[in-house]
Every structure is written in C-alpha cells, then in structure tokens.
Design brief:
By secondary structure, the protein is mainly α. It folds into two domains: 50 residues; 96 residues, no CATH class. It is 66% helix and 0% strand. It is elongated and about 75 Å long.
C-alpha cells in the first residue's frame, strides 16, 4: 500500500458530514483531555501540600484534629510496637521524613546519601548521627533478614529526631 492509497482510505474522515463530526469529536476530546489534566495537576498540588504540612484552608479541620497522625507520630507509634518489623518500619519512615525535609530545603541528588554529602557540620551539627542512622536504614533495606533490636531502632529514631529538631521540622 502506498501513501496515496492510505490517504484515500482515510480521506472519508475529513470530508462531508463525517468530516464535520470528526472535527467536533476531536475538539471535544481535546477539551476533555485538557480538563482532566488540569484536575490531575490540582489534585497533585493538594496532596503535595497535605504531605508537606501546608495548613488547610480556614475552617477545615487540621490533620491532628481529624485524628490523622503526623508523620513523626506514625514513626513513634511504630517504634513503641512490640513487633520488630514495626521497629524496622519506624527507622525507614524516619529516614524518609529526613530525606523529604532535605529535598524541601533544596538539596538535590538521586539518593539521600547524595543530599547528605552536600551538607556540612555548620548547617547540620548532627550530620554524623544522621549518617549513622542512615547506614542502619540501608542495612534494613538491603539485607532482607535484618531485624533490629529495640535499642538499635530507638537510637536511630532518636538520631533522626534530633536532626529534624535541629532543622526546625520538629518542635522540642
């Protein structure tokens, strides 16, 4: 089949009454696609604000008032669980919170380690402690059978908490 034959085959879509219908269907689908994309962007921005701690509009209940724990409360709740798997999760979640704070502060890189390398002790006095906790998190993430003791998990979470307080994310 040559290009002229292909053009003749599809030309019926662009002539006469069928051509007019095709035009309006393309226009309507373009408008709907644009509206859906705009809605997706708005939803993503709302979720992003929700997870960054942007206060809700006036009159809307705050997450704490609605019974939704903030991320650090979730970490401490998992740490207080009797289940060792929850202790691992608490360390991983605390690491993710610190990583998110560093990203929000403008530090770039593919990994949290890359972001930590950009810091110095003038900006984060507890940098060595964060590295220690992050190495523990990496052990959990990369060694499938790794189970922390409660003391190890508690220490790592306390180190992350100290860094978050120093960065102004957590209050004393």
């Amino acid at each position: 089949m040559n290009p002229d034959q292909i053009n003749q085959f599809f030309s019926f879509l662009y002539v006469g009454r069928i051509g007019a219908i095709t035009f309006w269907l393309q226009l309507a689908s373009g408008v709907l696609t644009s509206a859906f994309l705009a809605a997706i962007v708005v939803i993503m921005l709302k979720f992003r604000g929700l997870f960054r701690g942007v206060p809700p509009p006036d009159g809307a209940p705050t997450p704490a008032a609605a019974g939704i724990p903030n991320p650090w409360q979730e970490v401490t709740a998992h740490l207080e669980s009797p289940n060792p798997a929850d202790w691992n999760f608490a360390v991983i979640r605390a690491d993710a919170i610190v990583d998110g704070v560093l990203r929000d502060m403008g530090y770039s890189g593919a990994t949290m380690g890359d972001r930590l390398k950009q810091l110095n002790r003038d900006r984060l006095r507890s940098l060595d402690s964060v590295w220690e906790a992050h190495k523990l998190r990496n052990r959990i993430a990369h060694e499938m059978d790794q189970v922390l003791t409660y003391q190890e998990a508690r220490r790592a979470v306390m180190l992350y908490g100290a860094a978050l307080r120093e960065l102004g994310y957590l209050k004393e």
